[in-house]
Amino acid sequence: MKKINLLLSFVIVFTSLAISQSNVLVIDYNNNFSSDQSNNASNIYNRLVATQTSVLRVNAIPATINPATYNQVWIFGNMGVPTPALLNPIINYMNAGGAVYVQSEVSCCNNPAAFADQLIDATTTAGGSISHNAIKSGNFQYNSYSNLLCSPLVSHGAAVRPFVGTPQRNILYEATNTCGGAITTGDVVGVRFCAGDMISGQGALIVNGDFNIFPSGGTCGSVGILGTPNNNAVIDLISDLLPALACNGSGTPSTLTLTANPVNFCGSTQLGWFFTPGTGGCGIIGCNTDTTFKWTSIAGDPIIIGGNFSCDTCAFPTAWPSIPTTYSLTITIGDSNACNGSYNTLIPITVYPMMPPIASAGTDSTLCFGQSMTIGGNPTGAGGSGGPYTYSWTPTTGLSNPTIANPVVTPTALGTVTYTVQVSEPGGCPPGFSLVNITAISCCVVSITNTSTTSASCNSQCDGSVTITASGGATQYSIDGINWTASNTINGLCAGNYTVYATGGTCIDSTTITINEPTAITIPSTITDVTCNGGSNGQVVVAPQGGAGGYNYSWSVSSIGNTPNATNLSAGQITVTVTDANGCSNAVTLTVGEPVPQNFITFEASKLSGCSPLDIEFYNTTDTNLTTSILWNIDNGSALTVDTVSNTYTTPGTYDITLSAIDTTGCESSLTKTAYITVFEDPIANFSSSPNKVTLFDPIMYFNDMSQANIVSWNWNFDGLGTSNVQHPNFTFPGDDTASYLIVLIVENNNGCKDTTRKYVKIEGEYGIFVPTAFTPDGDNLNESFAPKGFGINEDAYSFMIFNRWGELIFKSNELDKGWNGTYKGKLVEVGSYAWRLEFKDVSGKEHRHAGKVSIIK
Hints:
The protein is mainly β. Helices cover 6% and strands 39% of the residues. The strands form 17 sheets. Strands 1, 9, 12, 14 and 15 form a five-stranded mixed sheet that branches.
């Protein structure tokens, strides 16, 4: 067994070896053993397939090999003379912490030391342990590092590197002097491997590790480290060691530190150790399943299990010795599973039990009032962890500094004050306590001979006073011994008991007094709630007590006056202030209640909205067993008391409807439905027509709707001659006669309300007149007479006259169709020009006058 004796702050570096299955990459270079399944490489391969998690066999070195994918790599076959590029994947894998086994024939015989040389050149760091000698053939000798201290030194058949850390020696094992030499399981137990180790056969190196294992002489062969081709135990051992020993050689070691918490303690302390995982590196192979612990006492209290120690074989025991005691811990690590390391170091750990600090407040003392003294003895005493100590004195009254060991006390009043000091320290022990009594006495001739008090005028009023009479040369007076005044009368006192003082220099006397006060004014009351909801017959009566009597009353409702009885109150709060004969007062706010509203009234209406005039009936649907009478307010000015009422609403708008009822208790309730009835706005029908004058020649008239408001439909009637439903229609009237036509427009708005308007439009007549300028009354029946021709002429007012050149009337006609035949008094007149004048009214009754000349031609 290997034993490690540990103590506080002793650090061990270790790694744990776990025997487990792995993912294995087998590089069978150029299918070297594929054709011969009986050779040693095939036996190794078959054993790995049977025992490991997964085995991938390839016949060339992959471009990259990831340590996260493969826990170990086994190399077989003759590579010839390898190049750095060929070996880089192996070198990178090893530098990343991977573990590699190389069969001996990879780097011997036909390629003198080429494989090993390349690995050494690529991976050996400056200051390393490997040095090439001039011989690069044969058995590929390397010189051992001169400071290795191996005995005897080996310079043939092995390469050795110094161990970094503890222990300080490498372990070197050699096989027999032939390539077929036997290596058994026992030969390699305890072999020290490190990060990136490469277990190899003859001619190879444990790169980034500590040593090499291979036969030291003999001829080259293919057996490598496995001297017995079918030794499965050795195969299993190497396959277990490879991944367990792979680590990052450039990392930091794990640490194990022994602890005592705390070293100085009150009660008990916890012994133990803590482990900090490293980030790689090489360390002792420790097997946790085989580790044991043993605690011993080497000075102080012997270990008594259950008496002063919880468990001497536990990793983390509890100790509570009565005196300072030194312990040591021995950790024993088993040697199975290739664990090794032997340490025999003993460093003591001492723990210190502590007592609470011893406090001393000093000796009870008496001194004259006005004098001072230092209190506190030796409060540090013994115990605790030795400080630093902190102090806390209570009470603080009269102390120069309540946080030091020896404060100065100056009494502020006559009598005894008990001071307590608490001493604390940072070691975790309970504080120490001590107390001292300091008594202040009067040492002079001042004497209080009389006191006269005045009571407070009101309860809780601080206007009492005391007058102190003293003899013996008193010059200062106080009500509390702290605040002093030259006046012997002290005012502004609340009711209570006081100690009053009189002093003359350092002389002081005191006595007790009492300031009285009247009892507090209380205001008992009797409240009568309102009978009905919304009523005003509530009442409050107050009967004050206490104080000086002679009460006056002030109510928040000023109309109540100075009386204890407030009547005709509505529900709600009311405040009364009572003032006694001394002017002392108290106020109280009282609440007058009322019944909750009775929501039992219901009513309905025959309709809720419509156009004006709107006729509506209202129905009382209230349970008649709950009421004695009802009253409607339907906005018509009438007091209606029957169950069904009606009203006609002519003005547009909304109307509130209220139904009130007297219930069987005599209380009135009402229900108002706001905006219950809606009378819609009526439309206003209106239109205009154009043009202003329409005649028979063009009897088309255009109508423009001018109605208001929110019109949605139009109904036109053109004096029975036609209808239209468009908003702005036009209509063609008959063109055979003048006449006035009645136009009727009915419009409807969006609420369905209608309005009608009626207007007449007139179709006026047209007239035309033509008067010839000459005619030929020569008997050829062509153009034999002269008369106007036209239309639209009213013959009842027609007059046509012809005059000769002397103005003599020679022809007159009142008939439109009767013309002048050119004769006067039965004879044809002479050729020439004759004047004419025409007067008539057209069909519209408008008068017209025209005049001109006509020529007779023969």
